Every structure is written in structure tokens, then in C-alpha cells.
Amino acid sequence: MARSTQDSRASGADLSLTSVTKRFGGFTAVDDLDLLVERGQFFALLGPSGCGKTTTLRMVAGLEEPTAGRIDLGGKDITRLRPYKRPVNTVFQNYALFPHLNTFDNVAFGLRRRGVRDVKNQVQEMLDLVELSTYGERSPTQLSGGQQQRVALARALINRPQVLLLDEPLGALDLKLRRQMQIELKRIQTEVGITFVHVTHDQEEAMTMADTIAVMNHGVIEQIGGPMELYDNPATTFVSNFLGQSNLVAGQVLGRTGDELVVEVEGSKLGVPVDRARQTSGRVWVGVRPEKVSLVSGGTSTDEGANVLGEARVIDVSFIGVSTQYLVRMPWGQELTVFEQNTGARERFGVGDSVDLHWTPAHTFALDASQDARAGDERYEGGLATAGVGT
Amino acid sequence: MSVADVGETLEGRTGKPPRKRARRSGWSTGYLLLLPGLLWLLVFFVAPTIQLAATSLYDSAGSLEAGYAMTWSFGNYLDALSTYREQFVRSLLYATTATGLALLLGYPLAYAIAFKAGRFKNLMLMLVIAPFFTSFLVRTLAWKSILADNGAVVETLKSVGILAPDGRLLATSVAVITGLTYNFLPFMVLPLYASLEKIDPRLLEAGKDLYANGFTAFRKITVPLSMPGVVAGTLLTFIPAAGDYINSELLGTPRQYMIGNVIDNTFLVQLNYPIAAACSVVLMVVVVVMVLLYVRRAGTEDLV
């Protein structure tokens, strides 16, 4: 598109945070955070509420000042720069549209403050981009949630910031509209080529849109990587539970054969690829994603080399349409989750059936046993931590 | 849930069908609730206003003893305007000046209470309202001693040369306007505070994010969003100030008299009811017209 080559401002710039800390009184919201966002990236900061992701974003915007550390944008130190002097714009969580201005004037606000000429054409062009061409005269209060969201996006984007910050921009929309806007945001980002930093607590949203995700918890980054890398090879129990679901069982590393660790779990020997093990000796959490596991009738023989946990009993079956979700109880009392695709080729089980769990060692990961196996698991966070996982 | 809804639900539950009746009784409930207020207005506002308008058209040659004849004397208005033009103009001038000063003083105060007071917010609001605990007269008399010729204020102003050695504050326009400003300041501050306090601080953050420095954000976001408070505050100050006669009576001399003093005097001393009534009607009409023009100009309809 022409607009992405209009001037150098539109092309974005590297954003880096070095040892950034933010304390509010005695509370440390962001703790010694290092982060590099490369130009043109769609970067997501993902984490539960209170993890410090919004504070991080506000420090980049200049709305909070870091207690310590340094923020650079395009090689320039912006740590103490006033928000109105930063080539950074924000799409706020509640949109924060100016109620006394119409859509056109809302979008034109930033241009007028910078004394830019040709406001009219630029605003019209931006309203076209967000598909609100004919809404210029409307007051924000006359717009739907999705439309307000797009005005907020246009109001920020029109300034061609080097980095666009999005603070839970889709949080207030209903599910269907959210999906639609996710695709829309991704399209716009590709079109304008500006670096996007997107804060969200919705792991699906982060995975759908972002090139790179930083998972945050308690003010620190647990892991940074592409959506697939984070999902398939989580570094911490928090990441394994917060991004999708995981089955984590306690094991003891026995030794190593070739590229695989051999881990004993309740009498069974399981293989874990060495490069997917965050800890290679002593006690570990052995993890596997529910959809990677197959169920077979108890005692059925399997492929040589598969990981097997036997003598489980089905205690709950939920039919979801595309898949069936089983909850099984292991002989040692722990409950594990298994998702089976409804391809028609798989055997179906009912509550009470005796089953074995099979999966390929390549899908197994091993995590530090000192971490809380329930960290990041929404079923147990927020006071629900009474249901027993027997580990 | 309105009373009518309750009625409907109850009837629905007991299986009685007449929904229509319930609706109608809902209507009459509304009117019944309005009735006391309407009656009050009718007896104490509409009737006296009509009486006042009628009095203003009586023959001004009449007297209380001889009685008044309804002669549709529109000439009363010409008389009133020509005789008391000076006091009319002075009233509007004093009221406008006092309103302007109250806005200048009240805006920063309301802003400070709304945004900067923190835990002292309620205390500061209390202090704004506190003068109401004493009488209007007592407060105005207090200003008399504050502005007195040998008082500290006058002495200080003389010593720094702002006031001439024989200058005085009491019995001048300055004293009357000061009194008006002081007395009506709370009516300015409270609506301003209410509308400033409602402003979402995130809008100011959004402004700063969009290249507005502190002052521009104030000018382009805070001020327009506080306009309902500015309009309400200026009206609440201007309207009573234009009709006030206590401040000019106590802090001024007949040379500072406002239209309120004229009305007071013609009604109670001269006992010239038709002219007094004509003055009252003129004041009322002028104020209403000014207020209408002002509200239209301020264009705050979609903000309140």
C-alpha cells in the first residue's frame, strides 16, 4: 500500500526494554524485565490480570515512569520522554474516545496537535481503512462497541507511530465480533507494517494474531517465542497451563538413551526428547498436551517406543462436536485430560471404562519439578484450588 | 421497576386478566405524583407571576388607599426603563463581572478539588459549603468590616500604592462586586466540581498519547467536557446576582444601587406598585432572554 511507504515513520522501529522495573509502593508490578520487539512485528504480551503487562505497555507509552531500567525506541532512549513527545500511540482498553468530538475529529486529534496539513484527506483515508467512511459525523456514543474500537484504532494509527500499543483492545467485544476484529487487526497490521504491541489475557487471541508472544506472570516474562514454540515446548508449568491445557505428572529421571531422557512415572518408563526437557536430572514434571494423547482399551498393545500410562479409568466424557474430551483417573488418583478428534476412526469410551493413555515421546516435555504444577491453570487459580490433583 | 410494573406482576400472578386497567392506573399514578408539585407551582409561581404582570399594567396614578385601575398602561414600562435605566445596566454589568470573577476563582478551585485534593476532597467540599451555615446578611456585614476604611486590607493596599492615600473600598463598585462574587462563589464551584469530577482521567491520558501537552489537553479535553458545569455555574451565579440588592445596600451607596434596590424601594417605600412590577417583569424577561441565548450559544445539550 502507498501509505506504508509514505514516510519513514510508518515503517516502525525496534523497541527494547532493558532491566525495566516498576514499583507501586511496596508492590513490584514489573520486575527487572528485558524485552526486544523487532520492527514490523506483531508482538503480544500475554498474561493473567495483574501480571504487569498493562504497566509494561503504559511505560512504553510514557504514562508510567519506570522505577529503574531503560526503554529504547529505534535506538533512542525514551525512558523519561513525555508521552506526547513519543512516536508511540495507544489503543486504550475502554477506547477512551473523546465524547465531545465526532468520529472525524477524534481521528484528526493527533494530526491537529502536530500541526499536520491535509488533515481531511488523511482522516478520510484512515476511516476508509477501518471501514467507517460514512461515520465521520457521528458521535462516539452513537457507535457500536466494534465501531468504537475501530475509531480508537484509526485515531492511533493515523499518526503512523513507530510502535502501536494495544491494551486489551478487544476485551469489551462479544466473542463473534472479537474473532472478526482479530482477523481485521492482523490485516491492518500487515497492510501498514507498523510494529504492534498487543496486551491481552486471552491466549487464543494472542496465538491467532501475534508473531511473537511474551508470556508474563507476576511481573516477569516466563517465556518468549512464536505461538507454536510456546505451545509445543513450554518452558514453565505456568506457560504449559496458561497457553492451552497440559497434563503434568511427577517423574524421576533415570538416565539417557541417545536423544531421549528416560523418566519413571509411577512405575512406567516414559521417553522425553532431551531438547524438550528443561531439567535433565532428578525430579521433573512430565508434560503432554491433551490432544496429543490417544486412548485405547486397557491392556491393548501399542507401537514400540510409545509412552504409555496404563490402568486409567474414564470418569467423565464431554462431547464437544469436533472432539470428545475425556477425564480419566490414574491409579495414583490424579485426573488427566484427553481430547480425541471425532474422526469416526477412533474407538469411543464411556464412563467407567478401563483405558490406557498412549502418545509419542516427541510430544512429551519435561519441566522443573520445583514449579507449581497448577500455576497458570484457570481451573485452580482464583479460589477453585480445592479439587484434588493427586500429585 | 415502576409502581405500574409491580401492579402488573401482582395481577399476573393472581391470574387476573385486566392488563389494560393496570396500565391506566399506572398513568394516573404518574399524574397523582405530579399533582402536589403542580399545585404548588400554580399557587406560588404561576398565579403571582400573572398578578405581577397584571400589576405592571395598572394605572400608576393609583395608590394603595384609592385602589388601582386596570388601564393596560404599557407606558409604565417606558417610565420604568427611562427612570431606572442606569440601575438596570449596572445590575447586568455587576452581575456579569461577578460571574466572570467567580468563574476565574471557582474553576481552579473546583479543578483542584476534583483532581488534586486526594483524601482532602470531602474536607475541601465541606469548606466550600461551610459559609452557608451562617446567614447571608451576617456574611455580607462581615465584608463590610473587612473592606472598612481603616481595615487591614485597605491599609495594605494603600501602603503598596495600589490604592490612593484617600482611596477607599467600601461604598464603591469594587466592594459590591466583591460581595456578589463572594456570596455566589459556592454556586459556581459546586456544579463545576460535579462536571470536572465526572471526567474520565483516561481521556486525558489518551490526549497526551495523541501529542497534546498538559495545557493543550486541558484546553481541548478538560474545558469542553466541563462546559455543562460552566453553564450551570454561571447561570446559578448570574441569575441571583442580577437581582441581588443586599450587597449594594450594605457594601455600596445609592450610587451603586442595582435594580433589586429599585424594586425594593418602589414596592416598599414609594408604594408605587405598577412601576415596581414593571421593573420586576423587565428584569425577569431580560434574564430569561440572556440565559436562553447563552445556553444556545454554549451548545451543551448533548453533554448534559
General description of the model:
The complex is a heterodimer of chains A (391) and B (304). Chain A contains eight helices and 20 strands. Chain A has helices at 53-61, 103-113, 119-129, 145-157, 175-192, 203-209, 227-232, 237-242; strands at 15-24, 27-37, 42-46, 68-73, 76-77, 88-91, 163-167, 195-200, 212-217, 220-225, 247-257, 260-265, 268-273, 283-288, 294-297, 307-319, 323-329, 335-341, 354-359, 365-368. In chain A, the strands form four sheets. Chain A has a six-stranded mixed sheet, with helices on both faces. In chain A, α2 (103-113) packs parallel to α4. Chain B folds into two domains: 3-55; 84-298, MetI-like fold. In chain B, 74% of the residues lie in helices and 0% in strands. Chain B contains twelve helices and no strands. Chain B has helices spanning 3-13, 19-55, 75-116, 121-129, 136-146, 152-159, 173-197, 201-209, 214-243, 246-251, 259-268, 273-298. The longest helix of chain B is centred in the first third of the chain and has 42 residues, at 75-116. The radius of gyration of chain B is 26 Å and the shape is globular. Classes of the chains: A alpha+beta (391), B mainly alpha (304). Chain A binds chain B through residues 61-63, 82-85, 88-90, 92, 94, 96-100, 109-110, 113-114, 139, 155-156, 159, and chain B through 200, 202-203, 205-213, 216, 220-221, 224-225, 227, 302-303.
